[in-house]
Amino acid sequence: MTCVINTQGNQNKDIGKEVKDMSKRYFACVYGGANERIASQHKEKIEELGKLIATNGFSLVYGAGATGCMGAVARGVKENGGFVMGISPDFISEFEDIFDCDNKVMVDTMAERKTLMEKHADVFFIAPGGIGTMDEFFQVLTLKYLKRIDVPIVVINLDGFYDTLIALIKDLVKQGAVTEEIHKLYDVITDVDEDTIVPILKKATA
User: How many angstroms separate the CA atoms of 152 and 166, rounded?
Assistant: First the structure.
């Protein structure tokens, strides 16, 4: 059953209760693009990620999109008996379709969306995506650097998709803008399969 909640007006107390009720689950948070132009082989791999999330006892929290990598991971979870929680601002339907989530939380702003996803996440996966995904990645990376969160952050670098992102971070270290410690705060994987993903999920529950 889909539970649609809106944070506007006097319903804020209900949101708090709903968030609290969800806390008993282990959640994998997946950030990724909703653009259908993302390579089909990347979307297939992210759908496999969704399958592995579900079959290893995790639920999904993500941005509620039905297309691109967002839709792929949600399908992978849902089709394998998993639980999908989507968090989205009301206006996002002007830009992308919304997935039929088991629990759908509607908020006012992108900032609220990120805050709720961060609140639930036991592990973050960064799937192929665009500027929105970069925003989400750098926010959780900053939070981990500042010791506000302490959960795995995993960049899924399929076919070199994130080579330039990783090079940027290395250059920031070289330029003295950030410390070498930044490299210890995230992991990079180049494939999505059971041997790669299952140990990450186990680490998230340790």
Answer: 17
